[in-house]
Write a structure and sequence with these properties.
- It comes from Terriglobus aquaticus.
- This is Nickel pincer cofactor biosynthesis protein LarB.
- InterPro entries: P2CMN_synthase_LarB (IPR039476), PurE_dom (IPR000031).
- Pfam families: AIRC.
- The chain is α/β, with parallel strands linked by helices.
- The protein has two domains: 107 residues, no CATH class; 130 residues, Rossmann fold (3-Layer(aba) Sandwich).
- The strands form three sheets. Strands 8-7-9-10-11 form a five-stranded parallel beta sheet.
- A hairpin with a 4-residue loop joins strand 5 and strand 6.
- Helix 4 packs across helix 5.
- The C terminus is likely disordered.
Length: 260
């Protein structure tokens, strides 16, 4: 349930195409639905502008499938992160229209009309090995209605690759940079752009990378002051924050606010 859905519900009551009792039934599960194992926050998009997302890791395929189906029945756009192929199969058995993005490990379902996108986010990754995290970030931001431009395999070992796309990166309101190994790329990007950079350390690298810890520490110690850091492999968290930054930075937001 999002603000547009609530307004449409009230408009249906005003037009007489929906009875007050029927509207009440639809609203009965707000602000959350208790399934016995989880409490689905159907009200979150009304409070924050972005819907609740299912974190599939640690849940059984059956639990994720049930949550996904319940959120689908509520009319929401649904996204599940960190989903295995087995979990995706269970979800699609109950919700056949759901789509599995295997590289990003996301399951998505769009049920509402996506309004004009707000904000522009650039997603960069240092190497092809960082693609799962970068695609998680890119697809999540797109799901939330943000325009995304991807620039992959632009790591510092071949800096000319980054410089070749610098002008396009400069068009974004926020930049997400995913990198493993020593995690140097966000600092370089931060020195080239005048917008916030969200650094995502990935668990890519040899032994002394300590599964992303070396990249995390390097990014936390960045000398570029516009760099902020999320946790290792957290493409979803980076996309969530980048979406909010990009929306706020979009110059059309002033007109949008005035229209309310």
């Amino acid at each position: 349930m999002n603000p547009a859905a609530v307004l449409e519900l009230l408009a249906d009551v005003q037009r007489g195409s929906l009875s007050p009792e029927q509207a009440s039934d639809r609203l009965a599960k707000l602000p959350f639905e208790d399934t016995g194992e989880a409490r689905i926050d159907h009200h979150r998009a009304l409070r924050t502008g972005l819907p609740e997302v299912i974190y599939a890791a640690g849940k059984t395929p059956e639990q994720v499938a049930d949550l996904f189906a319940r959120m689908t029945a509520a009319g929401s756009d649904v996204l599940a992160s960190r989903a295995t192929p087995e979990t995706a199969a269970a979800v699609q058995a109950l919700t056949p229209q759901a789509h599995y993005h295997q590289t990003a490990r996301l399951i998505s379902l769009r049920q509402t009309d996506l309004p004009a996108t707000w904000g522009h986010v650039a997603v960069l990754c240092a190497g092809t090995s960082d693609l799962p995290v970068a695609e998680e970030a890119a697809l999540t931001a797109e799901f939330f209605g943000t325009r995304v431009t991807r620039f992959f395999d632009v790591g510092v070992a071949g800096l000319h690759r980054l410089l070749a796309v610098r002008d396009q990166v400069l068009e974004a309101h926020c930049v997400i940079v995913c990198a493993g190994m020593e995690g140097a790329l966000p600092s370089v990007v931060g020195g080239l752009v005048a917008v916030p950079v969200i650094a995502v350390p990935t668990s890519v690298g040899y032994g002394a990378s300590f599964a992303g810890t070396a990249a995390l520490l390097g990014m936390l110690n960045s000398c570029s002051p516009n760099v902020s850091v999320v946790n290792i492999d957290n493409g979803f968290g980076a996309a969530y924050s980048a979406t909010l930054i990009a929306r706020a930075s979009d110059p059309r937001n002033g007109a949008k606010a005035a229209a309310r």
